Amino acid sequence: MILFEVSYNTIEFAFAKASRIAEVEERLGTYLSMIQPYLRDHNHELQGWGVNPNWAKNDNRPVKSPRYKMLMNFLELSKAKNDPFFHDYPEYGSFICGSQVQLDVSKTSYSRVLNAFNQIEGPKAVLLANS
């Protein structure tokens, strides 16, 4: 499945289950080998580099959906509040780029997998700070 995430600047790929992460990488490689040449012909490119370097030039309006309207309304609260909880870029959700992975985990291994991911959270934050 291919869909837009928050704005038309961010695209999301959802893949069916695979027995190996390398299978998903191969599928993504196949998609990108077809998509990137087309996008480059139109001065675009799919990237996963954290904050889009052209964020200030993009049309950062969110996709029109109730979910994203709710998200953007919440982020807009930062303009009315003088609170360190909020930052100065409430529209960030429409111009960030990144990668995320969701794993299917069985009920019997859920606790073990959750604990393993909690243990790597610190190094992951350092290694992937801009993703």
Automatic annotation (TrEMBL):
One Pfam match: GCS2
E.C. no: 6.3.2.2
Assigned keywords, A-Z: ATP-binding, Ligase, Nucleotide-binding
GO terms (BP aspect): glutathione biosynthetic process
Gene3D superfamilies attached to this UniProt entry: 3.30.590.20
Known catalytic reactions: L-cysteine + L-glutamate + ATP = gamma-L-glutamyl-L-cysteine + ADP + phosphate + H(+)
SUPFAM superfamilies, per database record: Glutamine synthetase/guanido kinase (SSF55931)
GO molecular function, one term: ATP binding
Transmembrane parts of this sequence: none
Listed name of the protein: glutamate--cysteine ligase
Source organism phylogeny: Bacteria, Bacillati, Bacillota, Bacilli, Lactobacillales
